[in-house]
Specification:
This protein has 512 residues and is of the alpha/beta class. It contains 15 helices and 21 strands. Helix 5 (155-166) links the parallel strand 6 (143-147) and strand 7 (170-174).
């Protein structure tokens, strides 16, 4: 993300910030923070406009959203250049991480909106079946506030916005203050596709602006960011009794079994710990390799990591860290690990030049006394620890305050599944990592400090609705047999139901 510096302001003036490129520290301009009054005004516009949007047929909303695919493709270079200016990520990564999945999300959710959101008839069981019928109506929540991060600012803004809009909600987005343009492009794309202006809005600001959004007239908050901020949001939402979805980062483990394809495992270890400069919540941050395979695995990882190029030039594999604070964290974690006995087989220090570069790094002889193995590093570091066997790998993988995802490298899918089911994580990936967020059918979310709730999955759009059950009577009757006044007949009727419905095992099975 761009380097952010708060500018001095006179009393009564709005808060202003200056952005600086993480690549060469050149100025990127300034932005102004929205006030609490600005936030309230945006939410009021959204509240007024939402009923008309929700009243549109689902197919009509879906057609508008599907049209945004054409806008993304037409605006592709503009979006990529904005991402590169604010983050410095290579063009290939902007296409891979931001553009390609955005098109897929737009296409996928719009195609499935009608199926997921239409009223659903549900068959009732037992003695209720003859007299009642049930419809579940997926009612929009109303206004959704979405707060998004800096590491993938376009796609991580677009995906939740699209889901909320398709479900019939209005959305107010607050992108990260350090990638404001890239996040706002998600709103711009959707407006160009035909979403009304008051239905999808963007407000720029810092933590104060975000707090105003969470405290404002919203019906749900979707947040991706730090654990500390996520806890504050959860407290506010709990007090206000509104739902929230929190994706709060990870410390994902990679387990390399003795039977793994070591060429693939080593290539994966390097790429999956270093793509996007390691600044992905699903990055591989801890690698546990079974002793039997450790020597060859480490040799291959070292060889492949040494070939990774970094720098400001367009042809480099890896760009800068996106923020000066992140450079400090990565540097501190690596330095502490080396002080405690870790060995840098490759890299291990900040890069050269004006930008926020850190060398592609491989550290061996690491352990759990080091912050590198327990705290979120978010940098281009492959940290490798030898383990006795798969059981020790599982124990150490679970020895974490985080639980977002994990990966298992083995030639045996059954082994991967057995190990995966023992891992206390939101998801597990076999012979790969990080791809799970792009698998739209898979519910995505973390355990422990990695978050609350899930996004995506086969009921993703429904998570932005209230499933409203509507119980209808099959027949017109003057009263129910258990209404007042009670009589001997009331009790005889209830005794008969109990005897015939639950008096023997066959009846219970039929009534279940």
């Amino acid at each position: 993300m761009a380097i952010v510096e708060r500018l001095s302001a006179e009393a009564g003036e709005r808060r202003r910030w200056a952005l600086t490129s993480p690549v060469d520290r050149s100025p990127l301009g300034q932005w102004e923070a929205a006030t609490a009054a600005d936030v309230d005004a945006a939410l009021a516009r959204a509240r007024r406009a939402q009923p008309e949007w929700a009243a549109r047929p689902i197919a009509e909303r879906a057609a508008i959203i599907r049209g945004a695919v054409d806008v993304v493709l037409a605006e592709k270079e503009h979006i990529v250049e904005s991402l590169r200016a604010e983050t410095g990520k290579p063009r290939a990564e902007a296409l891979t991480i931001e553009i390609l999945p955005s098109c897929d999300f737009l296409n996928h959710w719009s195609a499935r909106a009608k199926r997921q959101l239409r009223d659903e008839r549900r068959r009732l069981h037992g003695y209720l079946l003859p007299v009642k019928r049930l419809t579940v109506h997926y009612q929009p929540l109303g206004v959704v506030g979405i707060i998004t991060p800096w590491n993938a600012p376009f796609v991580l803004s677009l995906n939740p916005i699209v889901q909320a809009l398709l479900a019939g909600n209005a959305v107010v987005l607050k992108p990260s203050e350090v990638t404001p343009r890239s996040g706002a492009l998600a709103v711009e794309v959707l407006r160009k596709a035909g979403v009304p202006e008051d239905i999808v809005q963007v407000i720029h600001g810092d933590g104060e602006t975000g707090a105003a959004l969470v405290e404002g007239d919203v019906d749900k908050i979707s947040f991706t960011g730090s654990v500390a901020t996520g806890r504050k949001i959860a407290e506010v939402c709990g007090r206000r009794l509104i739902p929230c979805t929190l994706e709060l980062g990870g410390k994902d483990a990679m387990i390399v079994c003795a039977d793994a394809d070591l060429e693939r495992a080593a290539a994966g270890a390097v790429y999956l710990s270093m793509f996007n400069t390691g600044q992905v919540c699903l990055s591989v941050e801890r690698i546990y390799v079974v002793e039997e395979a450790a020597d060859e695995f480490i040799r291959l990882v070292t060889e492949k990591a040494a070939a990774v190029t970094y720098g400001a030039e367009a042809d480099k594999d890896m760009g800068p860290l996106f923020n000066d604070r992140q450079l400090e964290i990565v540097s501190a974690h690596v330095a502490q690990a080396k002080d405690k006995g870790a060995v840098a087989a490759v890299g291990g220090a900040p890069g050269t030049g004006e930008g926020l570069f850190f060398q592609p790094t491989v550290l061996v002889d690491v352990d759990h006394t080091m912050d590198l193995m327990t705290q979120e590093t978010f940098g281009p570091v492959a940290a490798i620890m030898r383990v006795r066997d798969e059981d020790e790998a599982v124990r150490l993988a679970n020895d974490s305050d985080y639980g977002l995802s994990a990966s298992v490298f083995t030639r045996d899918p059954a082994r991967a599944e057995r190990i995966g089911k023992r891992l206390i994580t939101g998801s597990v990936v076999h012979n790969d990592a990080a791809t799970i967020y792009g698998v739209t059918e898979a519910p995505f979310g973390g355990r422990k400090n990695s978050g609350v709730g899930q996004v995506n999955g086969v009921d993703a759009l429904r998570k932005f609705t209230h499933p409203q059950p509507i119980l209808l009577a099959r027949w017109r009757t003057e009263s129910e047999h258990v209404w007042y006044p009670y009589s001997d007949r009331t009790e005889r009727t209830l005794e008969t139901i109990l005897r015939f419905a639950f008096g023997n095992r066959l009846a219970r099975r039929l009534m279940s």
